[in-house]
């Protein structure tokens, strides 16, 4: 099975940018579609972005479309989330995750479809 570890979260001013990384170990990342989710205090975990195993397809929540970019480097076993123009209400713990099987358009945004999760990285956008 694959182990995931996020990094790159920190305090940033609203309107600023961050790049999160998700490093995989145990198995090659190229075996997995990948997703990014976030969870704010008192709220449910929500879908942010996803990418197919080959990198050929990327998908975004409406709220981040045009500001966030998901990418991957399978040679480095790493997935990235570039976040621009961060807003205070996007303060949350950000998680990367991998499903056991390739996701579909119907399943990619559902956290219950993902089996492997990192420990999360805190992103705080201050106003």
Task: Describe how the helices and strands are arranged.
Layout lengths: L2 E5 L3 E3 L4 E8 L8 E6 L6 E6 L6 E3 L7 E6 L4 E6 L8 E8 L14 E4 L3 E6 L1
Parallel strand pairs: 2-11
Antiparallel strand pairs: 1-3, 3-8, 4-5, 4-9, 5-6, 7-8, 9-10, 9-11
Major sheet attributes: 7 strands, mixed
The general outline is globular
What's the average pLDDT?
96
Residue fraction in strands: over 45%
Helix- and strand-based class? mainly beta
Helix content: under 10%
Count the beta strands: 11
Describe the model.
This protein is 0% helix and 48% strand. It has 127 residues and is an all-beta fold. Strands 2, 4, 5, 6, 9, 10 and 11 form a 7-stranded mixed β-sheet that branches. Strands 1-3-8-7 form a 4-stranded antiparallel β-sheet, with no helix packed on it. It starts with a strand and ends with a strand. The relative contact order is 0.30.
Short description:
By secondary structure, the protein is an all-beta fold.
Task: Provide keyphrases for this structure.
127 residues, mainly beta
């Amino acid at each position: 099975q694959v182990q995931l570890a996020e990094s790159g979260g920190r305090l940033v001013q609203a309107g600023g940018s961050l790049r999160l990384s998700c490093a995989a170990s145990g198995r090659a990342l190229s075996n997995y579609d990948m997703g990014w989710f976030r969870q704010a205090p008192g709220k449910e975990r929500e879908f942010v972005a996803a990418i197919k195993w080959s990198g050929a397809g990327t998908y975004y929540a409406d709220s981040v479309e045009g500001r966030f970019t998901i990418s991957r480097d399978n040679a480095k076993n790493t997935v990235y989330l570039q976040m621009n123009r961060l807003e205070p209400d996007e303060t949350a713990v950000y998680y990367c995750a991998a499903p056991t099987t390739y996701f579909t358009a119907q399943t990619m945004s559902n956290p219950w479809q993902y089996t492997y999760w990192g420990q999360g990285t805190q992103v705080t956008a201050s106003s």
